[in-house]
Amino acid sequence: MSADRAGEGLKPGKVPPEVLARLLAIPREPCEDVLVPPAPGEDAAVLRSHAGRTVVTSDPITFPTPRPGHFAVCVNANDIAAMGGRPRFFTMTLMMPPGSSSETILAIVQDAIESGSRQGIILVGGHTEVTAAVRWPVVSVAMLGDLVSPMPLRTGGARPGDALLQVGCLALEGTAILAAEHGERLTAVLGADLVRQALGRLEDPGISVVGPALRLAASDGVHALHDPTEGGLATGLREMAESAGLGVWVDAGSLLRLPETEPICRVVGMDPLGLIASGCLLAAVGAEVASALAADLESCGYAAAVIGHFTSDPALVLCEAGGERPLPRFGVDELARS
């Protein structure tokens, strides 16, 4: 029974899978031009248009973040690229709390425009308002791109025996957000240098995965891409496996991690596997090309590693030094507990 049916109300974060299933079950008119419709685990749709095939997505930034305009552009561009598309245009709705200054509004919009320009993405419209409905800036972006891969790279495209490739470190965004929210406490325990390093991750390497996603989209043997966000790496892995009707075996020792993530999560009492993971990309690739693809990405400056494989057995397994255990499930992102 979902929390809302029990009279408790839903918790912050993604709606529970059973609620999402009900939303997706609402009847819609069929259309042959919708090549990839809304589905669990899919972060973008693919449409057939007169100009070719268009990838469409929409995702808001609702957490308090230091650069909401920049982040909103990046997370939507990531979703387009993870489907095998090149982001091109976006609209943006900006909702600001009462008392916001015009300078703050201008700074958020300018940051979004400049972030898009660096990636070849153009702002083409939107809406801005001040409203008591929000307590901090909320930015919602709708983005369109051109499909550049031969076929859409769906979240659920993995095949039995495929290798699981991780690009970029897990919980990058979450680590930086925790450093910002708990800076004083973390500095007292871990030192100013570590906290400063964690905060800098939003700039270097940043949360964009468009570069490696497009490189993989142009490669043979790539069957699925997914950028894990809310719910962390564990939720992203679960979405890939369950969407494909497969299981997954993950080697915890091979996971790419920032050196500051574990200490910060230990102090605040959170699990890095369930912490918002923008800046990371997951790929299901043929086992025969996995090592070569990882090496190619490394040669281009992207951290990459083979961290496991997909199985016909539907079990979701995390292999650690102490043995194997089920992949943890996170009902909401760990950040929602901070």
Features:
338 residues; alpha+beta; 60s Ribosomal Protein L30, Chain: A; Phosphoribosyl-aminoimidazole Synthetase, Chain A, domain 2; 2 domains; seven-stranded mixed sheet; six-stranded mixed sheet; 10 helices; disordered N terminus
CATH topology of the largest domain: Phosphoribosyl-aminoimidazole Synthetase, Chain A, domain 2
Overall number of structural domains: 2
- Terminal CA distance reads 25 Å
Q: Give the strand tally.
A: 13
Q: How does the major sheet shape up?
A: 7 strands, mixed
Helix segment tally: 10
Q: Which strand order does the major sheet show? A: 8-10-7-11-9-12-13
Which regions are unreliable across 5 or more consecutive residues at pLDDT < 50? 1-6
CATH class group of the largest domain: Alpha Beta
Percent of residues in beta strands: 25-35%
CATH H-tier superfamily of the largest domain = PurM-like C-terminal domain
The quaternary organization reads as single chain
Coarse morphology: globular
